[in-house]
Specification:
The chain is of the alpha/beta class and 280 residues long. Helices cover 44% and strands 13% of the residues. The protein contains eleven helices and seven strands. Strands 4-3-2-1-5-6-7 form a seven-stranded mixed beta sheet. Helix 6 links the parallel strand 5 and strand 6. Helix 4 crosses helix 6. The radius of gyration is 21 Å and the shape is globular.
């Protein structure tokens, strides 16, 4: 009888050991950005993360056009200027109006695991626009975070569509010569800012490089819906894939989801663009 029970135990143990063990994670993410973060978060990030076998809780104080300098100004002046978006239990909600301050109540509302700070949009290739504002934001966030082990990431934005009115506006201001010049300056600034701020180059979310990689595909320079915000399908999908892969340490090819209307060929191209951005 003892031998029979032992055999049954060994068989059961063997069957259980053969079952793949789940490595699903739920990460609490606080995002500090503007409409470029909106592009990455509020449409595709949840289905991308869930199809990879993981989950998210997101807090996102949103104000369009907000730069690092303006975030710091709005915080120090206690301005009720943010529409606070949350993604929780698979549902997206918001305050519905610019009625919240980006205050310690938001920062302490969850034990955030991850804090993502977006580079500026127009000025992501202008190093003079990063400091002291990036350092000030990090210090303020660290002061009020309840999870003192929260990991910080720097979200790298993209160069604009060549020939677009927005690109020409920046050219006329003397910021950039064209898309190639803007991208080169972003690639120069972001790693330096990551190092100077203490975030580290290993914690850059390289959406700007993923987009630039995608522009070398059959899609070409059609990653933007208005010259600077991302296309609603392949553009936003690429940014969300980059967030997921970098924050969770997963391969974009782990993601089975693709947006409605997107071919598998296009989805694989976006994943390849992201994978190459993470490599280099």
């Amino acid at each position: 009888m003892k031998n029979v029970l032992k055999l049954l135990f060994l068989l059961l143990f063997g069957l259980l050991s053969a079952v793949p063990q789940s490595h699903a994670e739920t990460k609490r993410i606080l995002a500090v950005g503007n409409s470029f973060s909106y592009d990455a978060i509020l449409q595709e990030l949840l289905p991308v993360v869930r199809s990879g076998g993981d989950d998210i809780l997101v807090g996102f104080p949103y104000k369009g056009g907000t730069t690092l300098r303006l975030h710091w100004q709005y915080i120090t002046e206690n301005e009720k200027i943010y529409n606070y978006y949350t993604i929780k239990d698979g549902k997206t909600s918001s305050t519905g109006a610019a009625s919240r301050c980006f205050d310690k109540d938001i920062i302490a509302s969850e034990p955030w695991d991850v804090v993502v700070i977006q580079t500026d949009h127009n000025y992501s290739g202008d190093y003079s626009q990063y400091f002291p504002y990036l350092d000030n934001l990090i210090a303020y966030l660290r002061e009020h975070l309840t999870n003192k082990e929260a990991e910080f990431f720097l979200y790298m934005t993209w160069a604009y569509q060549d020939g677009s009115s927005k690109m020409l506006e920046l050219v006329n201001k003397g910021l950039y010569q064209d898309q190639t010049d803007q991208y080169a300056k972003i690639v120069d600034c972001v790693p330096r800012a990551a190092m100077q701020s203490g975030i580290g180059v290993e914690n850059i979310i390289p959406a700007g490089t993923a987009v630039q990689n995608g522009r070398t595909s059959y899609i070409g320079d059609a990653y933007n819906r208005d010259g600077y915000h991302l296309d609603l399908i392949h553009g936003r999908y690429t940014a969300s894939l980059t967030w997921y892969a970098k924050i969770f340490g997963k391969s974009p090819f782990d993601v089975s989801y693709r947006p409605d209307g997107m071919s598998q060929f296009c989805a694989d191209m976006c994943k390849t663009a992201v994978a190459k951005a993470l490599e280099t």
